User: Which sequence fits this backbone?
């Protein structure tokens, strides 16, 4: 099953909403530090409601720590970015993919983008809109991966 990875998330309600989506879909959620909040943050908990016991949460203190876990488990790194090279609908998702998303203000670091096998973007019609909300982007990417893999 695909996994969601948030690299340096900053806004607690976004991470809480993503955690709720991951709980609902039985998807592992990896948080890569540094984070812009404490995991015990009340806004994070409120956004995730009472679903935290159902979240398969993994915290990695650094990118280096995450890379070790990824290397041990295998699978493709797919980076979502407004600068992605491939439309997310044009990729054939695999069950062991890691869906990577960057922080709300700067996106994925170049170091992460260069480690990705593919970088994906979610097309937007209005050119004056810089990006979608992080929790929306995660849901779009995750549900397309699940649809393709027959995990509906």
Assistant:
């Amino acid at each position: 099953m695909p996994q969601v990875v948030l690299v340096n998330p900053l806004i607690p309600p976004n991470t809480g909403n993503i955690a709720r989506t991951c709980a609902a879909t039985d998807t592992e959620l990896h948080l890569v530090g540094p984070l812009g909040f404490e995991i015990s943050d009340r806004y994070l908990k409120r956004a995730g409601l009472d679903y935290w016991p159902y979240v398969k949460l993994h915290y990695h203190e650094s990118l280096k720590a995450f890379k070790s876990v990824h290397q041990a488990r295998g699978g493709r790194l797919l980076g979502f970015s407004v600068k992605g090279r491939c439309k997310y609908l044009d990729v054939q998702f695999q069950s062991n993919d890691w869906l990577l998303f960057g922080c709300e203000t700067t996106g994925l670091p170049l170091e992460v983008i260069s480690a990705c096998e593919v970088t994906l973007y979610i097309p937007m019609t209005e050119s004056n809109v810089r990006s979608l909300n992080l929790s929306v982007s995660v849901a779009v990417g995750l549900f397309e991966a699940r649809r393709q893999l027959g995990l509906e």
